[in-house]
Amino acid sequence: MTFLLETIRLGLSNLRLRLLRSVLTALGIVFGVAAVIIMSSLGEGSKRQALAQIERLGARNIIVRSQKPPESQNQQSSQSRSFVSRFGITRGDLDVIRDSFPDAEAIVPLKEVGGQILRNAQRRTSQAYGTTPDLMRVANLSVERGRYLTPSDMEERAMVIVIGSEIAKQFFPLEDPIGQTLRIDSRAFTVVGVLRPVGLAGGAGAALIGRDLNLDCHIPMTSAREAFGDLVFRMQSGSTQANETQVSEIYISVKDREDVMTASYLLRRVMSIRHPGLPDVSLIVPYELLENAKKTVLTYNLVFGAVAGISLLVGGIGIMNIMLASVTERTREIGIRRAIGATRRHILWQFLVETSVLAAIGGVLGVALGVGGSLLVDWGVEKLPRLPYVGQLFPADASLPTSVTPWSIGISFAVATLTGLVFGLYPARKASMQDPIVALRHD
Question: In this structure, are residues 173 and 227 in contact, taking their beta carbons and an 8 Å threshold?
Fold first, then answer.
């Protein structure tokens, strides 16, 4: 133990004597470790953001959506006129799905209604849906104020509405929306609840669903059918277009996550029989997207790790280069130490300790720089849109989330120390193999 402590003391003393050279040598390790941590934190932050957005759709859910087929999308009107496009899921499809999945935890339909949402002079394109109370549980929704739809609302065909957080901000910026009236086309509904923001605006979840869920409005399914029927009228380029869709979306929630893929295959087969080629129906399987996202992020982490590992390799080569030069400069010192009784093992350990301490200090500084850099990136990118002159170059919701993981710190520090040992072994061995007599004669 005394030998090891003395060797460490001597190594630190030699590094301190050549402080500037030691600092410059350690920079390669510092930047290498910092690069590993920052790269891994970027990958982990992006992964967690994507997975959180996808999981909000429900890892045990399968979503069937009505979509306008290509031939309907290509229909154009050379003059202002009306036409009806019929597509998507039917109530017969819904009955078949219920018969095909008797063990499903919940099967929740959504029906798009109305062309516009209005309040006084304010209006916007409708994103209102008739649905059932089960949607809140299945779609991981929560109410911020008021309440959600209830079974009694369904039975009584109540003219009540639960609005998204963005609708509340737009139509009721300075007052409590609960108890207020909101119209969908010519029908008036009483606001009974406001949904908590779901955090999907502009994110992966919104892209998958095809809309910002914070702009959704929910009314009882029974009220939707009675008040609006199956036609949805929309004004487009001076012409009125009517879409006839009986069911817009269906959420199928299975009991176990392990059954999701099997159920999705069965559902795809059922729908392909009723809609050959699935031109007007699409399936979204969040669990499948979740697994694909994890695989993609793993690939990114491997690539990031390889790129950052090159920095560590360069740092290791720098250490070897400096230590080889140090061996040449200290040849006479080595000869003197051998002459007064130091063995080859002592010389070997002395140089190994120096390189290991150098790499370890570089690793500690690199960890501090990497963690600080990751936090700075996470904090700073959100501030970029507010900067004068350059702020307009960035989107208003710019973000680059990071998440520093313990394994990235541990691995990068361990690799940095190991780099010092590996790349310091050859110079240390070369120093220990010096002939003491030749070394003493060295100028």
Answer: no
